[in-house]
């Protein structure tokens, strides 16, 4: 089975959304074509890149593994619609992995991100190339994965800034 993990920003600028969707779709479709139904997608299902990736992976027939950073992770979804989307994706997951943290701290996010990097064959990063805004942010996980020698596919457009 081939495994693709995701790390990425929660806020994807509107002008970049179609580009990000198309790029994720291209990578997942190619992996599905190469590995058939043996594709596993790893995501923490955060708003933004994580949920977009999960949506595309499931639509392409991949199995979804949800990596939950902490026991109170759902409390971080302030918008009821965002929480409902998270719960819907979570119900469609084949497997669930829980980090051993009671509260969603930066350390818990870092643990979830490094778990994904450790267990994937390729990491997709919806990343503007800038340093993480807190421990466990996209930049940290990209650097960690590269340190492991994992292939990292960065999806972004030069000149587009994140809110």
Descriptive notes:
Helix 1 (about 15-35) packs parallel to helix 2 (about 50-60), helix 2 runs parallel beside helix 3 and helix 4 runs parallel beside helix 5. The protein is globular and about 40 Å long. The model has no long low-confidence stretch (mean pLDDT about 95). By secondary structure, it is α/β, with parallel strands linked by helices. About 40% of the residues are buried. It has one domain: 3-Layer(aba) Sandwich (Rossmann fold). It has helices at about 15-35, 50-60, 80-90, 105-120, 140-145; strands at about 1-10, 40-45, 65-70, 95-100, 120-125, 150-155. It has five helices and six strands, in the order βαβαβαβαβαβ. Helix 1 links the parallel strand 1 (about 1-10) and strand 2. Helices cover about 45% and strands about 20% of the residues.
Helix and strand string, N-terminal first? EHEHEHEHEHE
Largest beta sheet: strand ordering: 4-3-2-1-5-6
Low-confidence stretches: none
In the CATH hierarchy, the third-tier topology is known as: Rossmann fold
CATH architecture annotation: 3-Layer(aba) Sandwich
Q: What's the number of structural domains?
A: 1
Global geometry: globular
Count all strands and give the number. Answer: 6
Mean pLDDT: 94
Helix content: 40-55%
Query: Major beta sheet, specifics?
Result: 6 strands, parallel
Percent range for β-strand residues: 15-25%
Q: Write down the Rg.
A: 14 Å
The structural class is alpha/beta
């Amino acid at each position: 089975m081939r495994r693709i993990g995701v790390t990425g920003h929660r806020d994807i600028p509107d002008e970049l959304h179609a580009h990000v969707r198309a790029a994720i779709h291209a990578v997942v479709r190619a992996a599905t074509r190469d590995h058939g139904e043996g594709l596993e997608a790893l995501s923490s299902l955060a708003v933004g890149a994580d949920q977009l990736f999960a949506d595309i992976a499931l639509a392409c027939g991949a199995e979804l593994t949800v990596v939950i950073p902490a026991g109170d992770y759902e409390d971080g979804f302030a918008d009821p619609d965002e929480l409902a989307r998270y719960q819907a994706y979570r119900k469609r997951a084949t497997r669930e992995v829980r980090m051993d943290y009671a509260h969603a701290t930066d350390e818990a996010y870092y643990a979830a991100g490094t778990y994904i990097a450790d267990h994937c064959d390729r990491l997709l990063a919806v990343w503007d190339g800038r340093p993480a805004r807190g421990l466990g942010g996209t930049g940290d996980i990209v650097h960690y994965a590269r340190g492991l020698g994992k292939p990292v596919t960065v999806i972004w457009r030069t000149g587009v800034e994140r809110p």
